[in-house]
Amino acid sequence: MEGSRTPPRYGSMESTRWPPAGPEDEIVSMADSTTTIDDIEGELFKIERIREILVRRESELRYMMDDIQLCKEISRLKKELQKLIALPENEKSNEEKQREEELVQQIHKLVETRDFLVDDVEFERLREREEDKEMAEFLQTPVKEKKMTSRGQQTSAPYMTKTGLTLLKECCGFTCSIM
User: Fold this and answer.
1) What does pLDDT average to over the chain?
2) Of residues 88, 73, 107, 74, the one with CA closest to residue 96
3) Which helix (H) or strand (E) holds 5?
4) For burial by CB atoms within 10 Å, which of 24, 75, 83, 117 has the most?
5) Got the DSSP string for 60-106?
6) What is the pLDDT of residues 31-89, one digit of tens each?
7) What is the dihedral of CA 38, 41, 46, 52, to 10 degrees?
8) Which residues does 110 contact at the CB level (< 8 Å), separation at least 6?
9) CA-CA-CA-CA torsion for 55, 60, 64, 65, nearest 10 degrees?
10) What confidence score (pLDDT) does residue 161 get?
11) DSSP type of residue 173
12) Is 70 exposed, middle or buried (0-12, 13-18, 19+ CB in 10 A)?
């Protein structure tokens, strides 16, 4: 009698009914795939390039937003300053003269800030151009050489692009509409 006793079941194992597996329900294993390691590496490389280009574009847009805000603030302060300057000098109160001086100082600070912003943008563009040059050199080398040499050791004829979108198009094989 002890031998015919079934062990206790936990959970809902007994009540679960699985439908019969059809051809469309077959589980496809990664081992059964015809995708090679080189294919996977190529896809990962493309995705990484797209991510880099999107990060660049995000940075570019942030710079543009900052520039627009600075320009708007400078314009607003200039208009206020023009109203004060339009008043005859002998009719201005001490507060108006002081406000005029404050406006000139604020405008000067904003212009300096914008100059730093423009310098940063130019530095970023030069850095990105250098990255594009390195990437172009890397992409022009055959696959076997890429595995054998590091990026710094590669030598091939570089080409320049104004933005990474050209590189994205060539790398991924599609026309990008990010910009």
Assistant:
1) 74
2) 88
3) none
4) 117
5) HHHHHHHHHHHHHHHHHHHHHHHHHHHS-GGG--HHHHHHHHHHHHH
6) 667 778 888 888 898 899 899 999 999 999 999 999 999 999 999 999 999 999 998 98
7) -150
8) 70, 73, 74, 77
9) 10
10) 39
11) S
12) middle
Q: If you write DSSP's letter for every residue of 104-120 in order, what string do you get?
A: HHHHHHHHHHHHHHHHH
Tokens of 23: 């051809």
Can you give the three-state secondary structure of 147-171, one letter per residue? HHCCHHHCCCCCCCCCCHHHHHHHH
Distance separating alpha carbons of residues 48 and 92, to the nearest angstrom: 61
What lies within 8 Å, CB to CB, of 84 at 6+ separation is 92, 96, 99, 100, 103
Structure token digits, residue 113: 């800030």
- The closest of 85, 75, 78, 69 to 103, measured between CA atoms, is 78
Residue holding tokens 């023009």?
82
State the pLDDT at residue 117.
Answer: 92
Q: Which of 74, 168, 65, 167 is nearest to 112 (CA)?
A: 74
Which two structure tokens, joined as six digits, stand for 59?
Answer: 């940075």
